[in-house]
Structures are given as structure tokens and as C-alpha cells.
Design brief:
about 375 residues, 8-stranded mixed beta sheet, two-stranded antiparallel sheet, about 35% helix, globular
Length: about 375
């Protein structure tokens, strides 16, 4: 976390007033770019990452040494073709891979912030990332896109900056968290805070790590990213490297072993306090409430074209919630297309090799650029 290995970072030296009322200044925003900026600067795509993502959308992540989180979609000749487009992706503030977050050191106290870090929102994340446009001297983006929390940032970006993107592609997202979403996030937060090593968020200053709590939080969240049919097809009730039940609390079933593995590898790359802060930002996100109960008003000033994408087996952000965004856009006569992709891979479908999704994304981006 905050391992400054091959990490590009922009120091934002102008004040940013956060929704919580605090003002931050001279703070880092870590980012990565892919492809080349053309002379007209009209080929720029800003990608927003999801909860546990980072700026390394493609290629090899220099920290984890694994493929970037959107490697199926971003790269030469892929749906988001880096031979054509200049792609920018930043680590959100509140994150733990170079951007200003709870694992940073407070210069006034010389201690790691922990839970003294200010509570941030999706709006704060987007406003921080807007500085990248000034840095690269980009007047208008060709596209903004992202899935899950990334999709929330897309909606917030267009609402905040209605004339700054030609097209917007929010994927598998919502305009506000349901009670179920908040409940799952709270389960994760309580798992972390119940770990004796959490120490009220001050663990880093005491050389501790609430890895057990964070691991359980990741396991619980990971279940929501999958689908019942997908889990059944992949794991069913298959036992883990044994012929019969062990009559213990070891991982008898393959699904148990899989979840434990997901939890154990996660703690090596993510900060527990960042998990608290980012899930809180997602829960606070409510674009409908921000516009006094009328979601359409969030977009009434924009001429941005939208493609909203959902997946049939996504029960975390179901198609019905994505359609609410489409309905709000239709109500103001916005240029909006909607596609529901058939997939048994659940919410994680946007991160995986789902050909129909990737082809849809590629066709829409390329056709829109031809009309640019």
C-alpha cells in the first residue's frame, strides 16, 4: 500500500473542498496512461475503477505482478484500443496505491492518518480526478467509462461536468446504493473493525494489520460479485482435494478454499482503512437525492451520449437499477442506448472475458469515434 514503485503521481496543489467540509491541498493523485495522445487531443478516454481496483487497468501491475484489472478490455486491438485511444486511469483518493488516502502520513503529526483521514465521497473522487484534464491540457474527453463504483463515478462526472465528455459508458452500476448494498458493505466494515489488530484504525502506526478482518470482508464481498448459477457450475458441492468429508472446520468444499484464497491474497495488496473509506463513499452515493429526488436533473445540462450496460446475472446492481438511469435519461430526451448482456458470471462479468460485452463495448466506442 502506497508502495511508490513505478507509480506516476500528480501533486494537486489547489485546494479541494470535500463534501464533509474539510479542505485538502497539495495531495497526490496516482495515475497511469495507455496509448498515445493525438495532436487534436480528441482521443482521450478516462476510465474510473471499482472498489478494489487501481490505476493499473491493463498491462502488468508493478505491485502485484499480475494482469491489470481490465486487461480483457484495455490494450492494443482490444475493446478499448490503445492503438487508437489515449487512456487515463487514476487511483481514487481514499485508495492505497499512491493517491491520497488513510495510509498516507499526516505532515502535521508525522503519523499515518488511519481513521483521522477525512471521510470522502464519490463526488470528491471525481473532483480530484478532474485535475488530470488540466494536467494533460485536455479541453474535452472523448469518453468516460467504468463499471460498478467506476460507473457511479461516470454518472457523477457527467453531472458535475456536463460538457466535458462526448460519450459516457456506465457499466453494471446504480445511481444510489440499496439497503442490501449498504448491508453487505457494513458487514465488511464490521469484520475489519472486529479484528483486534484494527486498533480503532491506528494499526499502521503500531505495526499491526487487521488482515483476518479484511480477509473476511473480501470473502463476503466476493460472493456478491458472483452468481448462484456460476458458483454452482464452477464449484457445486465438490470437495477440496479429498474423497470424503473431514468432519472439521477446515475447507472441506472447493468454494470454501476458493473464498479463503481470495481473502488471503487481497490483504497483501489492499489497506483495511481504505476499504472502510471507499465502501462508505459508495454507500453515501445518491445522485437522486442530490437532485431533490429527480435523477433526470443530474443530466439535464449535458449533451453527452450514453451507453448503459447491465448483466442478466448481476444481483448486486441488477438490470432494474441500471434501467432507472436509462429512464431518467430518456425523460430529458438524452441520447442513450441500453444493452443487457447475457452472462452467468454475475457482477464480475464486466471484468471477465465475456465476448458479447467486449464486442458491444468495442463497436460502440469505435462507431462513436468515427462520428467524433
Amino acid at each position: 500500500m502506497n508502495k511508490n514503485i513505478n507509480i506516476k503521481s500528480l501533486i494537486i496543489d489547489k485546494p479541494l473542498k470535500l463534501d464533509c467540509g474539510q479542505i485538502i491541498n497539495n495531495f497526490p493523485l496516482a495515475y497511469e496512461t495507455y496509448g498515445s495522445l493525438n495532436e487534436k487531443k480528441d482521443n482521450v478516454i478516462l476510465i474510473f475503477h471499482a472498489l478494489t481496483g487501481d490505476q493499473f487497468a491493463s498491462g502488468i501491475n508493478p505491485i502485484t505482478k499480475k494482469d491489470g484489472w481490465w486487461s480483457y478490455a484495455v490494450g492494443p486491438g482490444k475493446a478499448i484500443d490503445t492503438d487508437k485511444y489515449f487512456v487515463i486511469c487514476a487511483n481514487v483518493i481514499g485508495g492505497c496505491l499512491g493517491s491520497f488516502g488513510p495510509s498516507n502520513t499526516n505532515s502535521e503529526t508525522n503519523k499515518i492518518y488511519g481513521t483521522t483521514f477525512p471521510v470522502i465521497t464519490i463526488n470528491d473522487m471525481v473532483n480530484a480526478q478532474y485535475n488530470l484534464l488540466d494536467f494533460f491540457k485536455i479541453e474535452k474527453l472523448f469518453a468516460v467509462m467504468g463499471g460498478s463504483m467506476g460507473g457511479m463515478q461516470v454518472l457523477q462526472f457527467v453531472s458535475n461536468f456536463p460538457n466535458k465528455a462526448k460519450i459516457a459508458i456506465p457499466i453494471a452500476c446504480t445511481s444510489s446504493h440499496s439497503a442490501q448494498n449498504i448491508a453487505f458493505n457494513e458487514l465488511g466494515r464490521q469484520s475489519i473493525m472486529a479484528d483486534t489488530n484494527w486498533l480503532n484504525g491506528d494499526y499502521a502506526n503500531q505495526n499491526k494489520n487487521p488482515d483476518k478482518g479484511l480477509s473476511v470482508a473480501r470473502m463476503a464481498a466476493h460472493i456478491t460479485y458472483l452468481s448462484k448459477n456460476g458458483l454452482q457450475e464452477k464449484f457445486g458441492r465438490k470437495l477440496q482435494e479429498r474423497d470424503d468429508l473431514k468432519f472439521s472446520f477446515d475447507a472441506d468444499f472447493q468454494i470454501e478454499s476458493y473464498l479463503r484464497h481470495q481473502g488471503s491474497v487481497f490483504v497483501n495488496r489492499f489497506d483495511a482503512n481504505s476499504y472502510l473509506y471507499i465502501t462508505r463513499a459508495m454507500d453515501y452515493f445518491d445522485l437522486t437525492k442530490e437532485y431533490n429526488g429527480n435523477l433526470s436533473k443530474a443530466f439535464e445540462k449535458t449533451k453527452t451520449k450514453f451507453l448503459v450496460i447491465s448483466f442478466t446475472s448481476d444481483w448486486l446492481y441488477p438490470t432494474s437499477e441500471n434501467k432507472e438511469i436509462v429512464i431518467a435519461l430518456n425523460a430529458i430526451g438524452a441520447d442513450v442506448a441500453f444493452v443487457e448482456i447475457e452472462s452467468d458470471k454475475g457482477h464480475d462479468s464486466f471484468l471477465l472475458n465475456v465476448p458479447e460485452f467486449l464486442n458491444t463495448l468495442k463497436d460502440y466506442i469505435n462507431n462513436s469515434y468515427l462520428k467524433n
